[in-house]
Amino acid sequence: MEIIAGTVDTFSADVLFDMARYRYEVFVEKLGWKLHARGRLELDEFDRKDTIYLIARNPDGEIVGTSRLLPTHQPYLLASVFPQLLGDTPAPCSPDVWELSRFAAADGTRLGMAEDPHGWSLALDMLSVAMRTVAKKGGRRLISASPLGIERILRRTGLSMRRMAPPVRVDGQLLFACLIDVDKNWCPRRDRHADAIG
């Protein structure tokens, strides 16, 4: 398994196409999110030249995980689309805070993360790579909007995290925003579990 980080300028068109198709399969088909998609590809206005992607591929080269990293001093998903998840807290706007979004880790043939033990391990590895990637850019925290069940999973990782505000029901699902302190030396323990972060 390999996890690679890069921007649209560092990935081939084929890899970016496969990533957009994987995101469609996970977020639109499997999770039922109402996202704008074209031709079974999921991309939005936050997929820009400065966006950093993490892409996990299995030994056959198939994408089995992805996430998106954006500095919060540029437009980002949580502040633009889900500001209600922040409550009365102002949206972060700093090169020290990076948004983690479109995070998923699952074999495309078994998209149910809870049913995929490899997805648990991969999600932890991807979170570790995300923190190292952000740390190299000077980031000190990750912010993310996630389903409420992710909070329990994140707490089990031993990472320092906190809610930004109480959870809010959006399209029938309880979501919350959280801040995660970046620990570039954090290494996931294999006896802990993680899931996908939206």
Automatic annotation (TrEMBL):
According to the UniProt record, what class of enzyme is this?
A: transferase
Keywords from UniProt, A to Z, are: Acyltransferase, Autoinducer synthesis, Quorum sensing, S-adenosyl-L-methionine, Transferase
One record GO biological process: signal transduction
Pfam family, any one: Autoind_synth
Gene Ontology terms for molecular function: N-acyl homoserine lactone synthase activity
Superkingdom of origin organism: Bacteria
- Which reaction is this enzyme known to catalyze? a fatty acyl-[ACP] + S-adenosyl-L-methionine = an N-acyl-L-homoserine lactone + S-methyl-5'-thioadenosine + holo-[ACP] + H(+)
E.C. designation(s): 2.3.1.184
Tell me which PROSITE patterns the record gives. Answer: AUTOINDUCER_SYNTH_1, AUTOINDUCER_SYNTH_2
The UniProt entry's sequence similarity note says: Belongs to the autoinducer synthase family.
Which PANTHER family does this one have?
ACYL-HOMOSERINE-LACTONE SYNTHASE (PTHR39322), ISOVALERYL-HOMOSERINE LACTONE SYNTHASE (PTHR39322:SF1)
> What name does the UniProt record give this protein?
Acyl-homoserine-lactone synthase
Report the source organism: Variovorax paradoxus
Q: What is the lineage of its organism?
A: Bacteria, Pseudomonadati, Pseudomonadota, Betaproteobacteria, Burkholderiales
**Gene name of this polypeptide:** lasI
